């Protein structure tokens, strides 16, 4: 029967998604394992070579394609390695000292692997375009200082920034209740800057396509620890909410080929899931999801499955428009309605863990009403109806942005002291 067939299809979908998730877990596990082993190898090498004050590095890669480097190595006769800041599937980010300027900067060292090398070239192309349009970095996109090919490793030098807004949401990974939302004023300032930076990209015919809290970095992540009496624990509060947008590795120009699937799952717009084609509005959807997360400390769409994702959208935002369902060639609809069994365990999960958007509002006052009005306009199903970032910046929610924080022609001075 049709119902049984659909159930089988759904199960296959879920299994494929679970397999992809397992693959990602295995990848992360491998990264961790290799990282530990490399640390041990590096420690034994350090003890051997600590007598040498300035060494020419030997050019060697590990089995994953990462460049093997050590503290004190000098790359390109200019950048002295100080510490590893982080790593991802693409490669590593290293804290280095620029021996020409004496500045400490961040160097992204891409794996010596063809697909990551090609992706890095695309990122450099996007960053070049940004630098050409905005040499002073007034539009809050991270500044590329230099790039070079180091023995097959594309390297991109950036200004040094602080932690991401995501890092401050996760206050204590050891505890279950480990999230810590931002204050309304911080949400206002961070999201205003995000809209401003991404509007600049859109004005220059570019879509970021991978907006998420991990890709928004504080300029300076100095924080103070205060006691939160409601949560009965200490919380970290960042002193300045000035941010920069990073990671242009997936940025796509309007005239370029648009891959079918873009964005990290939780921030992916419905037109992307339904394979209806996408443009600038898919960034606006992501921003709506991010603002919700900054405000509540929880992910709006916590799922790894397309059908479940669409069911969550319907529970939170109402029915997906018939015209979008009809146009979509995907198998998630049956006679124009989402093919979703509310009585299944997945159906119960969605019902119990999601609720209409306005019910997430914690305080009923003008500020909070305006915030949720703006989020709901960013989460409009139809990309043609979705608010643009030019409109968002004029939304009443941003009328209260302090003069020192206002961006644009009238003001170049910006706040460095927003602590609430």
From TrEMBL:
Positions bound to ATP: 108
Gene Ontology BP annotations: regulation of RNA splicing
Catalytic reaction equation(s): L-tyrosyl-[protein] + ATP = O-phospho-L-tyrosyl-[protein] + ADP + H(+); L-threonyl-[protein] + ATP = O-phospho-L-threonyl-[protein] + ADP + H(+); L-seryl-[protein] + ATP = O-phospho-L-seryl-[protein] + ADP + H(+)
Residue ranges, compositional bias (Basic and acidic residues): 1-30
Major localisation: nucleus
Gene3D superfamilies in the cross-refs: Phosphorylase Kinase, domain 1, Transferase(Phosphotransferase) domain 1
Sequence ranges of Low complexity compositional bias: 45-56
Matching InterPro entries: CLK_kinases, Kinase-like_dom_sf, Prot_kinase_dom, Protein_kinase_ATP_BS, Ser/Thr_kinase_AS
Enzyme class, broadest EC rank: transferase
Protein localization: Nucleus
GO cellular component: nucleus
Annotated region described as Disordered, given as residue ranges: 1-63
CDD domains cross-referenced by the UniProt entry: PKc_CLK
Annotated GO MF terms: ATP binding; protein serine/threonine kinase activity; protein serine/threonine/tyrosine kinase activity; protein tyrosine kinase activity
Residue span, Protein kinase domain: 79-398
Keywords: ATP-binding, Kinase, Nucleotide-binding, Nucleus, Phosphoprotein, Serine/threonine-protein kinase, Transferase, Tyrosine-protein kinase
EC number assigned by the record: 2.7.12.1
Similarity comment: Belongs to the protein kinase superfamily. CMGC Ser/Thr protein kinase family. Lammer subfamily.
Name of the protein in question: dual-specificity kinase
Organism this protein belongs to: Graphocephala atropunctata
């Amino acid at each position: 029967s049709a119902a049984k067939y659909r159930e089988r299809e759904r199960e296959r979908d879920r299994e494929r998604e679970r397999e992809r998730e397992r693959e990602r877990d295995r990848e992360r596990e491998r990264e961790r394992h290799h990282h530990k082993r490399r640390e041990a190898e590096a420690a034994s090498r350090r003890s051997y070579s600590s007598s040498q004050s300035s060494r020419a590095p030997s050019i060697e890669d590990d089995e994953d394609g990462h460049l093997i480097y050590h503290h004190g190595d000098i790359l390109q006769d200019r950048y002295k390695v100080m510490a590893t800041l982080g790593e991802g599937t693409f490669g590593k980010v290293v804290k280095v000292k620029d021996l020409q300027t004496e500045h400490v900067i961040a160097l992204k060292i891409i794996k010596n692997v063809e697909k990551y090398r090609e992706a890095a070239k695309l990122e450099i192309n996007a960053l070049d375009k940004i630098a050409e349009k905005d040499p002073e970095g007034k539009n809050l996109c991270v500044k590329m200082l230099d790039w070079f090919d180091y023995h097959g490793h594309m390297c991109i030098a950036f200004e040094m920034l602080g932690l991401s807004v995501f890092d401050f949401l996760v206050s204590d990974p050891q505890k279950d209740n480990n999230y810590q939302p931002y204050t309304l004023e911080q949400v206002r300032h961070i999201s205003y800057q995000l809209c401003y930076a991404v509007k600049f990209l859109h004005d220059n015919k570019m879509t970021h396509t991978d907006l998420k809290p991990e890709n928004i970095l504080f300029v300076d992540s100095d924080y103070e620890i205060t006691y939160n009496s409601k949560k009965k624990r200490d919380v970290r509060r960042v002193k300045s909410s000035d941010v920069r947008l990073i990671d242009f590795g997936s940025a796509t120009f309007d005239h370029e080929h648009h891959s079918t699937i873009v964005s990290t799952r939780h921030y992916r717009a419905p037109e992307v899931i339904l394979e209806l084609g996408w443009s600038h509005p898919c960034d606006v959807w992501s921003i709506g999801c991010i603002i919700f997360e900054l405000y509540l400390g929880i992910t709006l769409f916590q799922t790894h499955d397309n059908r479940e994702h669409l069911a969550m959208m319907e529970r939170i935002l109402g029915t997906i428009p018939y015209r979008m369902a009809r146009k979509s060639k995907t198998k998630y609809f049956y006679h124009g309605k989402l093919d979703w069994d509310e009585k299944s365990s997945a159906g119960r999960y969605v019902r119990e863990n999601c609720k209409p958007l306005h019910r997430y509002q914690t305080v009923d006052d003008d500020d909070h009403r305006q915030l949720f009005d703006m989020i709901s306009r960013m989460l409009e199903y139809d990309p043609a109806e979705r608010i643009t970032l030019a409109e968002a910046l004029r939304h009443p929610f941003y009328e209260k942005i302090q003069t020192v924080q206002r961006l644009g022609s009238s003001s170049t001075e910006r706040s460095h002291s927003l602590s609430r």
